Amino acid sequence: MVTMAGTLDFLSVNVWHILMAIGNLLILVLILKKFLFKPVQNIIRQREEEVEKVYSDADKALSDANAEKELYRKKLDDAKAEADSLIKTASDRAKAESSEIISGAKAEAERKLKIADEDIELAKKKAADEMRDSISEMVISLAEKVVEKEIDPSAHASLIDEAIDSLGE
Q: Does any domain span residue 90?
């Protein structure tokens, strides 16, 4: 069952067939490598670069967004501080104006009160003078009727003044 050519009949293994199959396989691998693996690797490399670029752009956008967020937060804090300052200034100004208005009103009230006191004093004096004149006329007419004699008008006026002074005290 063994032949001279070195092959077994029942196995039929031919070394040349195996070498040819290996050669074909090597040629096929080289062709695939040249026409398939290199372009696929180039495409994969391009995709990796694109993905890397997208990640770097995203990281840059995130860092820019964080920087802008900090900038806006700082501006917001500055705006709040400025608003607080404006409110404090306005409050202080309002308090100052309020005290000015109050002091002005007090001064005006005191002035009006003083004028009113002066008017009252003047009215009292005028009323007292009118009363004095009225009483003196009444006393003179009564005295003329009672005494029915004529008295010297200067003596009579001095008597009336004394009577009025004693009434005023």
A: yes
Confirm if 163 and 140 have CB atoms less than 8 A apart: no
Give the domain extent around 164. 15-168
Instruction: Provide CB contacts within 8 A for 2, sequence distance 6+.
Output: 8, 9
Instruction: Tell me the one-letter amino acid at 153.
Output: P
Q: Is 61 within the bounds of a domain?
A: yes
Digit-coded pLDDT (tens) for 34-88: 888 888 889 999 999 999 999 999 999 999 999 999 999 999 999 999 999 999 9
Q: How far apart are CA 169 and CA 167, in angstroms?
A: 5
DSSP string computed for 60-117: HHHHHHHHHHHHHHHHHHHHHHHHHHHHHHHHHHHHHHHHHHHHHHHHHHHHHHHHHH
Structural domains of the chain, count: 1
Which pTM does this prediction carry? 0.40
